[in-house]
Amino acid sequence: MVKQRNSRVASRKSSSSTLVFTMLIMFTFVILILLGFGILSIPSSSNDSPKAHDLNSIARKTIERSEEEEEEEGRGEQWVEVISWEPRAFVYHNFLSKEECEYLINLAKPHMQKSTVVDSETGKSTDSRVRTSSGTFLQRGRDKIIRDIEKRIADFTFIPVEHGEGLQILHYEVGQKYEPHFDYFMDEFNTRNGGQRIATVLMYLSDIEEGGETVFPAAKGNFSAVPWWDELSECGKNGLSVKPKMGDALLFWSMKPDASLDPSSLHAGCPVIKGNKWSSTKWMRVNEYKV
Ligand SMILES: *[C@@H]1O[C@H](CO)[C@@H](O)[C@H](O)[C@H]1NC(C)=O
């Protein structure tokens, strides 16, 4: 008697779990059919993210955000802005503090020399009319402040500190400029140590009243859609431009993710019209760069 009751309970249990299982299967089918006909859809964030070449919406978002929040202590509010995908270019706002900018300028000031460009045959520096600024190099890891900045650059680019050349400090006075050029090398000599230049971090150490923009004349997209269009110089309107602002850092890539050279990374330093431009450049290599 007892035995019989037990088996009846067991069979009732198993039939109810079969029912639950069947209903689950049926429910899954219904969901799949609804998804198939597009009646249901899985929410996706890609619907509201800006399109690749829609510079307008990307830039507007940033403006809203910068107005929303107050400046904080030290380096102030930091945020990254996507400037372009062709070339891949990003601005890290308030990357350096005012003190760091002043430190770099004062360190470099006594050593400034007329800028040169690298000769692709001999690897030696030569005088050039395409580049009329003056500059100097600061050795990698030379002191605590520079090591801090170099670590921050490594974090921002995901490229190790050891792949970086020494920081270059540049000074452009009124009328001085750098004609359109690539940062990558077209020769064997310059790539012997460290390989190709893969990315550049350009840090603005001073504010400039007029001119001195970094312009990408070969960038894809509608240049005139940037919200700062009306503030650009004539030269700045020849492409996608970034206006120098003290402490901001511009990162752009000379190589595509497949390691081929990216001709859309062509860029120039527009002539300074009013004020004084100080900037610092960090070139990152594909491999370790030995100092
Ligand atoms: C580029 O953007 C500007 C400003 O938003 C707009 O007036 C112009 O029509 C756009 N041009 C093209 C070709 O989309």
From TrEMBL:
<dbReference type="InterPro" id="IPR045054">
    <property type="entry name" value="P4HA-like"/>
</dbReference>
<dbReference type="GO" id="GO:0005506">
    <property type="term" value="F:iron ion binding"/>
</dbReference>
<dbReference type="InterPro" id="IPR044862">
    <property type="entry name" value="Pro_4_hyd_alph_FE2OG_OXY"/>
</dbReference>
<keyword id="KW-0325">Glycoprotein</keyword>
<dbReference type="InterPro" id="IPR005123">
    <property type="entry name" value="Oxoglu/Fe-dep_dioxygenase_dom"/>
</dbReference>
<feature type="domain" description="Fe2OG dioxygenase">
    <location>
        <begin position="163"/>
        <end position="286"/>
    </location>
</feature>
<keyword id="KW-0408">Iron</keyword>
<dbReference type="GO" id="GO:0005789">
    <property type="term" value="C:endoplasmic reticulum membrane"/>
</dbReference>
<feature type="transmembrane region" description="Helical">
    <location>
        <begin position="20"/>
        <end position="42"/>
    </location>
</feature>
<protein>
    <recommendedName>
        <fullName>procollagen-proline 4-dioxygenase</fullName>
        <ecNumber>1.14.11.2</ecNumber>
    </recommendedName>
</protein>
<keyword id="KW-0256">Endoplasmic reticulum</keyword>
<keyword id="KW-0735">Signal-anchor</keyword>
<dbReference type="Pfam" id="PF13640">
    <property type="entry name" value="2OG-FeII_Oxy_3"/>
</dbReference>
<dbReference type="InterPro" id="IPR006620">
    <property type="entry name" value="Pro_4_hyd_alph"/>
</dbReference>
<dbReference type="GO" id="GO:0031418">
    <property type="term" value="F:L-ascorbic acid binding"/>
</dbReference>
<keyword id="KW-0472">Membrane</keyword>
<keyword id="KW-0223">Dioxygenase</keyword>
<keyword id="KW-0479">Metal-binding</keyword>
<keyword id="KW-1133">Transmembrane helix</keyword>
<keyword id="KW-0560">Oxidoreductase</keyword>
<comment type="similarity">
    <text>Belongs to the P4HA family.</text>
</comment>
<keyword id="KW-0812">Transmembrane</keyword>
<dbReference type="GO" id="GO:0004656">
    <property type="term" value="F:procollagen-proline 4-dioxygenase activity"/>
</dbReference>
